[in-house]
Design goal:
4 helices; elongated; alpha+beta; 135 residues
């Protein structure tokens, strides 16, 4: 799953840095399990975890019309771990994977919905890893 190399530049993205008392393997497993019930596409390569959720097709068809279609917003999360003295440091980057578009202008409600979805993704990963903001 080559997220970074095969996509249009995202319109919406957010990066956070956390610390977790878990080991790298525990944190990677916990985050993966947290997204498994969302039918996310998950790929792990060493200390890097890539997660994709949502459906480009479903979101393009239904947009912001319904609460269930807003949950289909196509987004991804990359999580990179680095060993620390006590646990791990985590760098998390959430972004849209909306793909090709004719304009960089967003339609009504898109900014709020995409930003909310990215925030949910980051909170879900942080909670799973028992993470706190890195000092």
């Amino acid at each position: 799953m080559e997220i970074d190399g095969s996509r249009t530049k995202p319109l919406f993205e957010k990066t956070e840095h956390w610390s977790s008392p878990l080991t790298q393997d525990e944190a990677l497993t916990a985050i993966s399990k947290a997204f498994a019930s969302d039918k996310a596409r998950i790929h792990q390569d060493g200390e890097l975890l890539e997660i994709q959720t949502g459906s480009n097709l479903q979101y393009r068809l239904w947009g912001n019309l319904f609460s269930w279609s807003r949950r289909k917003i196509p987004v991804a999360l990359t999580v990179r771990m680095r060993a620390a003295e006590h646990g791990v440091h985590i760098d998390a980057h959430a972004f849209d994977t909306f793909g090709f578009r004719l304009t960089d202008h967003t339609f009504f409600g898109a900014r709020e919905n995409f930003e909310d979805r990215l925030e949910v993704l980051l909170r879900q990963a942080a909670a799973a890893a028992e993470a706190s903001p890195k000092a």
